[in-house]
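Fig. S4 source data, part A: sequence.
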Amino acid sequence: MTTYDDRASLTDLTTTAERVRRSVEGVIEGKPEVVRLSLTVLLAEGHLLIEDVPGVGKTMLAKALARSIDCSVRRIQFTPDLLPSDITGVSIFDQQRRDFEFKPGAIFAQIVIGDEINRASPKTQSALLESMEERQVTVDGQTYELPDPFMVVATQNPVEMEGTYPLPEAQRDRFMARVSIGYPSAEAELQMLDVHGGPSPLDDLQPVAHAHDIVKLIEAVRTVHVAEAVRRYAVDLVSATRQHPDLRLGASPRATLHLLRAAKASAALSGRDYALPDDVQALAVAVLSHRLLPTAQAQLNRRTAEQVVTDIMQRTPVPTSGGGISAPAQPQPQPQHRPAGPVYGRQPGARRL
C-alpha cells in the first residue's frame, strides 16, 4: 500500500531526476529519449548497453551520467589483453603481515564505464557476470560486496568486427536495456559545434545528486504499484517471444523482471505511483530486443529483433482501464449511518485511466 511518505519520495524523485536529466542533456544534445532511458535503468537497478557506430557520443553519455551523480566512477578500457583479475581484483601476499591482502579491481565502483566491452576475450567478459547479477565479487573463495548503487554502463561498436568478440547470451541478458544513440538532427549537430567547439562541457559538469539520494530514489521506485493486469501483460509479451517463428531464442524470465522494474521506474519518472501498460510498451523494445536471436530465415528476410518485438506488441491484447489498472485505493472509514459492508462508488484518491 502506498503511504503519504512514499508519495513524497516520488515527488523528490521527479525533482532530482529532472536535475540529472538537464545536466546530461547539457552534454548530449537532441537525445532526450536516450537520457530518459538511462535514468530509467539507473533507478530500476539495472545495467545499460550503449550500442552504436563510432563518434555519436556513447562514451560521452556514460561519462555525463556518471559525473552528474556524486558517485565513485571507474572506467575500464576493454582490450584483448585485459585479464579477469584487472576487473575483479587480486590477492597479493604481504611480506610484512605474512598474509594475503585483497586489492580491489576496477569493478569496485558505483558507476562502472566499460568502453568497447566486446574487445575483451570471453574469459574476461565472464568476470562481469557475477558482479552484474549478484552485485558481489568472489576471489579466492572470499566474497566481497559491491557498493550501492551499482550500475555498469557498457559501450560497443556493432559495425567494426575486427578483433572483437560477440557478447555471450548470458551477459547480454544481464543488461536491462540496450540503447542506440543514433545520429543527431541538423539543428542538434549545429548546436553541438557551439557547445563542443571549445572546452569539453564535461570539464565543467558538476554533480547534481548524491549517491545516498539515488539509493533513496531506488527505494521509492520499489514502492510503485503494478496491477495484476499489467504484470500479466508483461508476461504475455515475453512469453510470445519464446513462441515466435522468427526467433530461435526468446526472452528469459529475467527479461520479464527487468521489464517490470523498468516500467515502475518509468512510471515514477512520470510522477505516478502506479505503472500503466504504456510504460511496458514504451520500454519493451529497449529491454527485450538485445536478448533475442532471430532465425537464419529471419536474418535472410532482414527481420530484426526490434521488428519482431514491435509485431508482438501489435498482436498482444492490451489491458484496459476496466481491468483495475490504477493506484491501489486507500482504505476509507465507513460512514456512521451505513452498516458495515463494502464501500460503494469510487473511493477518494483512487486514480483510473
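Fig. S4 source data, part B ends here. The longest strand covers residues 89-94.
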